Amino acid sequence: MESALASGLQGLLLGISHLELGQVVMILIGSLLLYLGIRKGFEPLLLLPIGFGAILVNIPLAGLMEQDGVLRFFYDTGVLTEIFPILIFVGIGAMTDFQPLMENPKIILLGAAGQFGIFLTLLLALALGFDKLEAVAIGIIGACDGPTSIYVTSKYAPHLLGAVSVAAYSYMSLVPLIQPPIMRLLTTDKEKKIVMGTVKQPVSKTTKILFPVVVTVVASIIAPLGTPLIGMVMLGNLMKESGVVERLKHASENEITNIVTLLLGLSIGATMEANKFLRVETMMVLILGLVAIGLDTVMGVLFGKLMCVLTGGKVNPLIGAAGISAFPMSARVVQAEGQKYNKKSHLLMHAMSANAGGQIGSVIAAAIMLSVLKGMGIV
Questions:
Q1: Using CA atoms, how far apart are residues 167 and 178, in angstroms rounded to an integer?
Q2: pTM
Q3: How far apart, in whole angstroms, are the C-alpha atoms of residue 51 and residue 253?
Q4: pLDDT score recorded for residue 184
């Protein structure tokens, strides 16, 4: 009897005896992500399952990422096959309104300018010793587009998935803290006070329906490797604008996106095993991701200043900061910042145009980088 009791106690203590310092640290990091998601409201839909997944995968002897583990199943089925991020893109398209961009199409240039930080960070990552595929995965963090970051990283640098995903979604939630100081530094008081006129170019239903089809064809021809990304975003948008598949649109926005977000978050957390995550390169990824978002904001605002000059002072450079993919958060930041300097300035719709352009631009930027790598025989 005593022997059996001793064996039972030994079994209970087995997990504790195998608990390593790194696993304790990762459990604390997972708990921190839970705190940020629950208490601070930083992207809770993803940080909560990511944080809990990080805790689960670092429980000793649980075997959740072993061959028959449940988290391994989710990861292999949805992340390695790219199904999860692709389905998220359909939901994003169904929830995105591109009408402000269609009303003021020249603003798409700000969406393009807001991607230059990606390429600058890519060069910096290469200079720091990351290989080409890793550098692409790190650079794309600057787009502030979580699904694109996950898609590219899971496909070409899966060992960085945890670090890239945490960086992408954490920094996306911190856009209201990251962007305003850069916007203030790069613009004059006079530029900040510019009032932009109301855009009054009605968009027909036919135009709204044709837009996703035309963008898909043109973008896919320019950068074929981005077809799964841009195609799924535009499929979701086509379902929204056509008005004939309300059930599919509703499912894409809600049930499908919610389920996939949960499983995707757990799968990302499952990549955060202590022996893989607690490395110098993880800290470098986090730092470079912050640099990428900062550089994207800088380039967007600087291009906004150029447009201001070329239009004789009719464009408020602040809207250039919205040329990233954090939709519509970045547009709201621009509106709030503009209101601080001129209560008569209403920049939201103009910033929404740049923000929508940034969503398309981030996907095309990723596609272009991957197409270049394919041309070089790397992928």
A1: 13
A2: 0.83
A3: 24
A4: 95
